[in-house]
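Assess the record.
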Amino acid sequence: MNSSSPHHNITHGWVPPNSGRGTFDILSSCLLTIFLCCWTSVCVNIPATTESKLERFLDKAKLAAVGILGPDFLCIIAIGQYESAKRSLNDFHKAGFEKWTIRQAFFADMGGFLLTTPDEEEPQPLNGELLLALIRKGYVSYPEFDEAAIDDKNKFDGLARLITVVQALIFATTSFGRLAAHLAITTLELTTLAFIFAMLATSFFWRDKPQDVTRGVVLESQCTLRKITIEVH
């Protein structure tokens, strides 16, 4: 077989940018898109009151790292939290609290409500299930905390999300355009496309979850935590 056949004219190794599609161009575009997809789609739970800004940043960085190592893992976490919030929504509605929303359910499950008792100095985080149990037994009142108040605490970075969406659209359009023109794309570019689809799925299930909330809402109870723990559980 003739080794000079055009099918064998494949360039291996580092390709300079002046050749049209350089190695650095591909690497930088893919890595930037992957980082933006993982970082902006992450919605961490509310940190403990004792955590510093650095610790909160590290919490988000760890969850973003999970997304980089396996975007499907992050999507599975989002699906699980979404299902939990849906159960909370249904339970509250069945209990007669029709104004309870999916956004409030997410806020509760991410540690948005804190319980203070006479025998404990540190507030204890509540999820939606525990909050409903305490309300039913009269240990706390139904929190008059609507979505407007949640949005006030929400630190959603719209600019970062906009940059991510634009970058993802440009990348996806370019990649699919090359495929339509029967031009080759690299394995890394295919991987990046998978990250984009995973980001879209994760963002869908976390669309109602508040982002980067740093402080919860304190609910007071006159009963001791020991008594509450015995009777609720």
User: Anything to note?
Assistant: The mean pLDDT is 85. Strands lie at 113-117, 120-126, 217-220. The CA atoms of residues 116 and 123 lie 5 Å apart. The radius of gyration is 24 Å.
